[in-house]
C-alpha cells in the first residue's frame, strides 16, 4: 500500500483518534439533549398533574374566595 505524498502515515492515526473523540462528544451531547428534554417533560407533567389535583381538591376557602370575588365583581359593574 502506498501513501500519497499529501497524506503522510503520521497524520492518519491522530485523525482517527480525533474522530473517535468527536464521536464520543457527539453521543454525550445527544444524550444530554435527551436528558434535558426528559426533565422538561417531567416538569410539564408535574405541573399538569398539580393543576388537575388542585382543581379536583378545591377547599372551602377556594370556593368561598371564588364566590366572594364574583360577587364583588358584579357589584362593581353596577
Order of helices and strands: HH
Mean pLDDT: 76
Radius of gyration: 31 Å
Question: What share of residues are in beta strands?
Answer: under 5%
What is the 3D shape?
A: rod-shaped
Uncertain runs are none
Provide a count of the helices. Answer: 2
Bin the helical content.
Answer: over 70%
* Cα end-to-end separation: 96 Å
How many runs of DSSP E, i.e. beta strands? 0
Structural class estimated from helices and strands: mainly alpha
**The biggest beta sheet, please?**
none
Short structural description:
With 78 residues, this protein is mainly α. It is 85% helix and 0% strand.
What does this structure look like?
This protein is mainly alpha-helical. It has a domain at 46-78. It is 85% helix and 0% strand. The chain is built from two helices and no strands. The protein has helices spanning 9-56, 60-77. It starts with 8 loop residues before the first helix and ends with a helix. The mean pLDDT is 76.
Question: Secondary structure elements and their pairing?
Answer:
Blueprint: H1 9-56, H2 60-77
List key phrases describing it.
78 residues, mainly alpha, 85% helix, 0% strand, rod-shaped
Amino acid at each position: 500500500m502506498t501513501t500519497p505524498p499529501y497524506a503522510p502515515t503520521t497524520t492518519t492515526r491522530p485523525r482517527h483518534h480525533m474522530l473517535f473523540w468527536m464521536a464520543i462528544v457527539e453521543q454525550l451531547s445527544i444524550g444530554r439533549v435527551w436528558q434535558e428534554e426528559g426533565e422538561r417533560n417531567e416538569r410539564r407533567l408535574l405541573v399538569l398533574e398539580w393543576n388537575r389535583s388542585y382543581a379536583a381538591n378545591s377547599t372551602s376557602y377556594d370556593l368561598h374566595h371564588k364566590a366572594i370575588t364574583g360577587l364583588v365583581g358584579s357589584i362593581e359593574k353596577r
